[in-house]
Amino acid sequence: MKNKLRTLIEQPGIHAAPAVYDCIGAMVAEQAGFDYLFSSGFGIAATQLGKPDFGYLTANEMIDAAKRIAHSVSIPLIADMDTGYGNPLNVIRTVEDIVQTDVAGIILEDQVWPKKCGHFEGKKIITVDEQVEKIKAAVYARGDSGLVIVGRTDARAIEGLNGAIKRGERYLTAGADVLFIEAPQSREELITVAKHFQGVPLFANIIEGGKTPNLTLSELEEMGYKLVAYALSGLFSATQAMIECFNTLKTDGSTQHINQNLSFEDFKTIIQMNKHTALEKRFGLTKKTD
């Protein structure tokens, strides 16, 4: 998987993917034809804990979620690993644990722990020198595994765009494979970043209603971006569908009139029911009939 992701990044053109928070989302994305995926710390916190992305998730919770998601599909996963959960030594342990999984890449950010969603207010960042050492530690810990390291900076909100760009330069020098400057606040800022880092694999994060404008892929590709994550699109869509379903059930006392196109048979296809039925038969768990 790690080599698959590196090959994808080296290919020409832009590559977009949704961020998911569970295995169903990952399998749906793969079946929709996406070449790779992201895991969403925001989505995992919301769905597993019912809490905002305020650093409530532990390292083990994030690693376990990423491990399950990556194992459920045959396309590469870039996993949100927040700040690496401590100093460079903690980053080493985090990366060593990740390397043993099917996860193909990780995102490491420079916020103070506990962190916040990159599109929330009130973020704080560590010094650039501290983050440089954490990226170097991640490079050291990945060894020859091929794990892709996405260096993320949240400095735009604190130090301005120029400060974020300067940090980006340092993070690339420290060994980051992809640069992620979080939450540029206009088309012009996105262009400025891309022009400064020509030839560098750049990452853009699109959140509907967030700080970064929701441009088309062709616009971002023309600027020079390589990877684009749609961080909360799936979570928002699934939540809206549940709101409509449950409100209708409460109001009507029935689900007969819910606008739901997905059938029971469709869902069995998504979760590859046939594969598991075949395993039952293979190991004698189903009764043979004449």
% residues in beta strands: 5-15%
The total of beta strands comes to: 8
CATH superfamily: Phosphoenolpyruvate-binding domains
Q: What's the architecture in CATH terms?
A: Alpha-Beta Barrel
For the termini, the CA-CA separation is 44 Å
CATH overall fold name? TIM Barrel
Q: What oligomeric state best describes the polypeptide chains here?
A: single chain
For the record, the count of structural domains works out to: 1
Q: Look at the structure and give the mean pLDDT.
A: 95
Keywords:
single chain; 290 residues; alpha/beta; TIM Barrel; 8-stranded parallel β-barrel; 48% helix; globular
Provide an overview of this structure.
The protein has about 290 residues and is α/β, with parallel strands linked by helices. It has one domain: Phosphoenolpyruvate-binding domains (TIM Barrel). It has 12 helices and 8 strands. Strands 1-2-3-4-5-6-7-8 form an 8-stranded parallel β-barrel, surrounded by 7 helices. α5 runs parallel beside α6 and α6 packs parallel to α7. The longest helix has 20 residues. The chain is globular and about 60 Å long.
Write the layout of secondary structure elements.
Layout: H1 2-10, E1 15-20, H2 23-31, E2 37-39, H3 41-49, H4 59-71, E3 77-80, H5 88-99, E4 105-109, H6 128-142, E5 148-153, H7 156-174, E6 178-181, H8 187-196, E7 202-206, H9 217-223, E8 227-230, H10 233-252, H11 264-270, H12 273-282
